[in-house]
Amino acid sequence: MAIPGYHGRVLEIDLTTGQIKIEALASEDVLLYLGGRGLATKLFYDRIDPTADPLGPHNVIVIASSPLVGSQAPTAARGHMVYKSPLTGYIGTSNSGGTWGHTFKATGYDALIIRGRASHPVFIDLNPEKIEILDASHLWGKNVPESTDILTAGSTPGNLYRALVIGPAGENLIKYAVVANDKNRVYGRGGPGAVFGSKNLKGIRVRGREKITIADEACYRSGVDQAIYLLKQAPITKRLMRELGTAGLILLINVINMLPHRNFLDVNHDEEKVERISGEAIARGYLEKAGSCYLCPIGCQRHTAVKTADGRVRRGEGPEYETTVLMGPVCDIYDLDYIIQANYLANELGLDTVTFGGTVACAMELYEKGYLNPEQTDGLEIRFGRGDLLEKLVELTAHRKGIGSLLAEGSYRLAVAFDHPELAMQVKKLEIPGYDPRASYAQALGYMTSPTGACHLRGGYAVSLAFFGGTKEIPRFSLLQSPIAIRNMQNTGILQDSLGVCRFTGFSFAIEPWARIVSGITGYDFSTARLEEIANRIAALERLFNLEAGLKPEEEDVLPSRFSEIPIMSEGKPRAISRENMIQMRRDYYRARGWNDDGRPGESYLREMKIEPKKA
Fold first, then answer.
1. What are the pLDDT digits (tens) for 369-404?
2. pLDDT in tens, 456-469
3. Which residues, 6+ apart, have CB-to-CB distance to 205 below 8 Å?
4. Residues above pLDDT 90, as percent of the chain
5. Separation CA 284–CA 247 (nearest Å)
6. Which of 17, 88, 568, 604 has its CA 20 to 30 A from that of 236?
7. Quick check: pTM over 0.90?
């Protein structure tokens, strides 16, 4: 008998042999790891050799749903994907909204495990009646919108197909290729699209109408009502995100000296130029309408249009904050026409815009310092400010042509190829997103300790701690408070990912409403204390995998030297993060997590967490 909120079934597909297995979902895994990110991590860890080649047949992809998906809990429609990242060599863990995650749960499965490598391009067709591995040769080479339209063409009213696909970037094994659903929602960072491509897996089509049961309707409903009420009260979720989208944060982030510039050399901008790329500018000049993921009252999606140089009108989604900043001021570009069109093309071809922007910025600095020359760039002058090159560089990268074959490897490998790794703004080979770590010690520590590399989501979104945290606000430059604060933010994110809900709900409330909702759905007492224990367990298992995959904490839980050597001005003082400060915060973070001072969870802690390491 499945626990309410779950179907109790795990689907496992081996693309090499074509074998399809359905297994019972272990209740113990549910109670210890919940769902989504936690459940996917457990299923992944149990099935993979940590030393496996990320682009080889022995890498494993796990997609897991959560007990809230299938209910009416606000924003509860997300799926979570775990894989070994070809960009970092460590755990890849990515989350996506839209409609695919909800429809996957409606097929009657809680998780999908994919192994092996098909001999030719295939897609998986999944519904409650049958599971098939079908030929995708006719889709290979097509972009994300084209592939999506073909796979969803057979939809019927009330029983729609939803497609999860890769574009040419995934087929060409670009190390930061994404997997897309609804054409513009993506499992983005760390290269899951390349893992799909390495398996000759073009996509996964789902449809279904299977329902979940709810154990305690009154408890569940009280939590849902509380969550909706709080979402409607907080200014960010009530108004800002719908009116301005995520790019609505650009002016604020600039005011607090956190908006990076020229490959993170500084945070100095012409104010008028920043206004040109703001959420307000997008709303005035490009926005056609706002949109939402399934069951989301926030509505942060931007459906936009831009007029091309030849007078045509192109339509698409975005750009989001991260895309705007990484393709914008990080490259010293302040022209939305260029940024939006490059973003559209990146979505169509299936590229992570954060890593792409960070890699292009690295190339621009290499070029301007003379380490990269015109002969190596096919004559392109890849200088800061060249917005006119963005779209061309997207095209070259996604198809591994010319300089694109180097950009396809990410900033770290690009910089190493020219003997200047210090110019790659990355942690664990994942590019730093659009918040300068010198402006927040907590954010710096989040980048350093994130399981996936420099990620403001897996590492903890410390901007909210400093400015939107209410009673939880902490000083931006506190060495003492940052370790505990970022651990708590990371744990909140782990739980949101494991419950299948949107991170933006954290601007309105923490975990209490979710605890009530998941307790009501399942009939089990998932108190906030129990959820905190689950988050600690998931963090420890992610860390354990990385260590077994070869992580060296002393060398890799650090920021690039630029952030200790070149200060920025913030709150009237020069701010940098010394090596000593990094070591102190990192050590205190390890202790706050209950790990050893060398960043490794000890044997007694793993036993306490009910985690069994792999045998050496």
1. 999 999 999 999 999 999 999 999 999 999 999 999
2. 899 888 876 555 54
3. 123, 124, 125, 126, 151, 152, 161, 162, 163, 164
4. 91
5. 13
6. 568
7. yes
Would strands 122-126 and 201-206 be described as parallel, antiparallel, or unpaired?
parallel
Q: Where are the alpha helices (DSSP H) in 100-159?
A: 100-105, 144-151
Peptide bond into 192 cis (omega under 30): no
Question: Among 52, 64, 59, which Cα is nearest to 11's?
Answer: 64
Question: Among 108, 110, 31, which residue's Cα sits nearest to residue 65?
Answer: 110
Average pLDDT estimate for 569-576: 93
Q: Is the pLDDT of residue 286 over 70?
A: yes
**DSSP secondary-structure letter at 615?**
P
Number of other CB atoms surrounding residue 272 within 10 Å: 8
Neighbours of 584 (CB within 10 A): 15
Kindly tell me if the per-residue pLDDT of 470 is higher than 70.
no
Task: Give the model's confidence band at 17: pLDDT under 50 very low, under 70 low, under 90 confident, else very high.
Answer: very high
Question: Are 137 and 118 spatial neighbours (Cβ–Cβ below 8 Å)?
Answer: no
Q: Rounded CA gap, 463 and 457, in Å?
A: 11
Q: How far separated are the first and last CA of the chain, in Å rounded?
A: 36
Separation of alpha carbons 118 and 194, rounded Å? 14
540 vs 424: CA distance, rounded Å: 28
CA nearest neighbour of 73 among 234, 245, 235, 212: 212
Sequence-distant (6+) residues with CB within 8 A of 573 are none
Residue 541 identity? L
User: Would you call 177 helix, strand, or coil by DSSP?
Assistant: strand
| Alpha-carbon gap, residue 472 to 469, rounded angstroms | 5
Spatial CA neighbour of 562 closest among 452, 458, 386, 432: 432
The residue to which tokens 């390495």 are assigned: 198
Distance CA 172, CA 535 (A): 35
Contact 90, 84 (CB under 8 A): yes
Cβ-based neighbours of 435, under 8 Å, separated by 6 or more:
253, 258, 260, 443, 456, 462, 463
In angstroms, the CA 71 to CA 210 distance is 12
Q: How far apart are CA 341 and CA 308, in angstroms?
A: 8
pLDDT of residue 333: 98
Which stretches within 125-233 are classed as H helix?
144-151, 168-171, 192-198, 217-233
User: Per 3-state DSSP, what percentage of the chain is helix, strand, and coil (rounded to 5)?
Assistant: 45, 15, 40
- Comparing CA positions, the residue from 597, 613, 330, 270 lying closest to residue 454 is 330
Cβ proximity of 117 and 57 under 8 Å: yes
CA 562/CA 577 separation, integer angstroms: 9
Tokens of 24: 């019972």
Q: How far apart are CA 390 and CA 346, in angstroms?
A: 10
Using alpha carbons, list the distances in angstroms from residue 10 to 2, 68, 114, 234, 616: 12, 17, 11, 38, 28
- SS3 of 284-331: the string is HHCEEEEECCCCCCCCCEEEEEEECCCCCEEEEECCCHHHHHHHCHHH
- Do β-strands 301-307 and 287-291 pair in parallel, antiparallel, or remain unpaired? antiparallel
